Amino acid sequence: MGFYYFDYTYFVYIVPALIVTMIAQFRVKSTFEKYSRISTARNMTGAQVASSVAQFGGAPGVQVQRISGSLTDHFDPRDNTISLSDQVYASTSIAALGVAAHEAGHAIQHAQGYLPNKIRTVLVPITNFGSRLAVPLIIVGLFLPVQYDFVVNLGIALYSFAVLFQLATLPVEFNASFRAIRALDEAGILYPDELEGAKKVLRAAAMTYLAASFTAIMSLLRLLVLAGNRRGRD
Question: Hey, which residues are catalytic here?
């Protein structure tokens, strides 16, 4: 009877996702640390680069501020502000400038009405709402009689919005990095060898978004299998 309750789906779907996530996190941390130790020739700070790239890309009026934390950098379209972490804001390293330019890429997307970014923005409130209800509904539904399958199905449907959000995030992040590298190159902010380092930093960061999407998909597949197995037993 003990084997009956063994949840093999955790090892099939969740463990691989955890491994991919750990690899992505290790790579982004090690790559960022490596290029954080290499200063750039023009000696511009992350704050200066964020402002310059936004201006160069057609997003004037963007404010740049410092925030606490590590790799907490982000762009907020509500007040058109780029927030850079302590290790990016005043740093002149290749890693810092790559991250700062990436956030400026998001500001440019916002200014130009980049369609995938609009889609992602629309999904934010839906995803937040669905994420709060999905797991409780699924857990409760799995303990209810089979005639209440609609509760599990509703929870899975709500969770699917989180998966959709992760997938919608990919083109937004990749495009922001593309805009960043192009601006750093065309504006002459980085020299060719420095630009290669910035590309490696942003590619490592992109792995974390791919890992998040992979994790969301694997979690959804696991939920579908658990729901299917439940119906098969009843």
Answer: 103
pTM: 0.90
What does each C-alpha distance from 106 to 22, 50, 55, 62, 77 come to in angstroms? 26, 10, 12, 11, 9
Tell me the pLDDT tens digit for each residue of 204-218. Answer: 999 999 999 999 999
d(CA 172, CA 94): 22
CB 92 within 8 A of CB 49: no
Neighbour order of strands in the sheet with 81-85: 63-67, 81-85, 74-76
Quick: pLDDT tens for 70-91: 889 999 999 999 999 999 999 9
Phi-psi region of 161 (alpha: psi -120 to 50; beta: other; left: phi over 0): alpha
Dig out the tokens for 28 from the structure: 């982004």
Per-residue buried b or exposed e for 135-162, using 16+ beta carbons within 10 Å of the residue's own CB = eebbeebbeeeeeebebbebbbebbbbb
